[in-house]
Amino acid sequence: MATPEEVESGGDTRREIMEATFRALSEHGYADLRVRDIGEEFEKSRTLIHYHFDGKHDLIASFLEYLIEQYEEPGDGEITDPWGALSDRLDQCLFGPEIDAFDHWERMTVYHELFAHARHDERHRAVFNDHYAQLRGNLTHVLEAGVEQGAFHDVDAESLAQLLTDVIHAARARRISLGHEDAPEQAREAVDEFVLDSLAASERER
Amino acid sequence: MATPEEVESGGDTRREIMEATFRALSEHGYADLRVRDIGEEFEKSRTLIHYHFDGKHDLIASFLEYLIEQYEEPGDGEITDPWGALSDRLDQCLFGPEIDAFDHWERMTVYHELFAHARHDERHRAVFNDHYAQLRGNLTHVLEAGVEQGAFHDVDAESLAQLLTDVIHAARARRISLGHEDAPEQAREAVDEFVLDSLAASERER
């Protein structure tokens, strides 16, 4: 049985391999990535990579889970201010977490590149589907709370959450692929004006 | 100087190379594609590919232009029915042109895969930027006509057209990458309910 120190050390090694994978993916892209490129970004022995992961396929699937975990947040807490909670969530999805030195857009670039390849890989697709469901679920939770509390109209929360999740995804993709640096800001303003404007319960009766 | 027959034949050959490229991309994906894979899908001599194109890079950029041309439509015609024109345009973008035997989703799959790689290639990025501008421009044209004719509220047409273009892109990406077959239908319904519902000039005054 592994001692706590060994477990801890194994966890550290895995994390270091994951960060090496991130740097290698950022530099080489998924298409051209070889395990040796990851080895070159990794400070310890390359044999440790082969000890922990069963080839590039397994490594990338694990990396994807690791990447997405960094964006995970409990989305089921109590909502006391639905408008504030909705705004915060949209901002965080569009602009990234407020952590200094956390390279959000480099991570998102890798995320979107792997997303585009997900149809070729059932395990990748399952991870992305879980993440999509989580993003939509967190927004649904906020919208349902707002409807219950009378802050929002009685909307189909899941359908609206799906629309917002799609807009977030597209704005990020547009920034990354087309170089539209202001795509997240544009999306935020358009959502405010054309979607959320009519969500206010006080504006009109249904 | 080339005779008309030779020009015609050159056009045919280029089209045949483009369709061979499409089949090879569908089968192998962009990452693993070699010019020889395209050669295997091409019925004529492989040397013709090298005669017409300067390597994989040039071939793919030309293919991208060819692919996008198939979706091009003049978007500056007179709009007599703004609601109908908007609905038709959204349907066509989300569900594909109504041409039997035109494999819209296979073409879109290739499109989205190349889109994800566009940041690596300025020529690809320029083609995608032109196409994005065209899609948004066509929607802007319909929205402006509707505003002018009093069918729609006085909205910022360009901003709304950008939001709709983003939603279309995301729904297609979600269908392709995550396997959500109903993503286009979901997006259409959500756009109707949450975006277009408040576009009606008669619904409320600004």
Automatic annotation (TrEMBL), chains A, B:
Keywords recorded for this protein, A-Z: DNA-binding, Repressor, Transcription, Transcription regulation
Entry's Gene Ontology molecular function annotations: DNA-binding transcription factor activity; transcription cis-regulatory region binding
Entry-linked InterPro entries: BetI_C (IPR039538), Homeodomain-like_sf (IPR009057), HTH-type_TetR-like_transc_reg (IPR050109), HTH_TetR (IPR001647), Tet_transcr_reg_TetR-rel_C_sf (IPR036271)
The HTH tetR-type domain, residue ranges: 11-71
Keyword Hydrolase: no
Pfam families: TetR_C_6 (PF13977), TetR_N (PF00440)
Protein name (record): AcrR family transcriptional regulator
Source species of the chain: Halolamina salifodinae
